[in-house]
Sequence to fold (291 residues):
Amino acid sequence: MQREEKINGNLIFPQQEKGEEGRLKRTHQLDRRQRMDLTDKVALVTGAATGLGRTFCEEILRHGGKVSICDLDSDAGEHTADELGETFGKERVLFCHCDVTDYSQYEEAFQTTMTEFDSIDIVINNAEIWNDKFWELEVDVNLNGTIRGTLLAQRFMGRNSGGRGGVVINIGSATSVRPQISTPIYSATKHAILALSRSCGDAYHFNLTGVRVIVVCPALLENAMSSHNKRFKSPNHEKAWQLDVKGLMPQKLEHVAKCIIPIIKDATSGSIWLIANGKSAKEIPYSAIQL
Fold:
């Protein structure tokens, strides 16, 4: 019988080390000789003008990388690019206006980044909306935007397309593994991002493309505490929010950004990482139930 584990009160099924006959093994280890050194590596980051996305860019730059700041807000994006360029070198920073709900515009951001830096090595699908009042847009940004970014990353970085491989970090949430009752639609998008990342991160796709796909699930962030009641589809969901955040400690953006660096460098494709309560990132064992 399969052993069960619980994380934050939720049932998680550990990885299967032995695949069934006729099926691909569900887990695989990254060849450590491919461990990524961030020096001169190019990271395309969405939702990067402010907040967590900007903090990711800063941390990657500190480790010697280059960044393409992709955001819908051109004023904030250009301002961030100017500030980071002054600190880390203008030749290492690029801004691309990008609406992740528009495939052509997203594709153009990839092409512009390739033209400027001659490569893309890391893609962080970070852009999101957390507001169930605008649930159709929420789904299009959070889920469809991540799908578009993952497919474009596989196309531009995939060895089967002439690329040299790379890594995709899809930003989920603690709600990817524990439903958030106050915002069920947001929770649904983050659950789906986990499934997308597990599927695209499978050995089958990794062996074809050389692109690792990983999902990172940050729990409550400091900037999530303001105006949270404006994100609910109903004012009655305030009580559910209090239950959702009970026992959680808000985290600094800088902490999450620091945790993501070792994940980028050598985490296994298809792996799930939880960053909660200001602690180090923890891999969550998970796999599909064998039917």
Q: What stands out?
A: DSSP finds eight helices and ten strands in the chain. The two ends are 13 Å apart (CA to CA). The domain at 42-283 is CATH 3.40.50.720 (Rossmann fold).
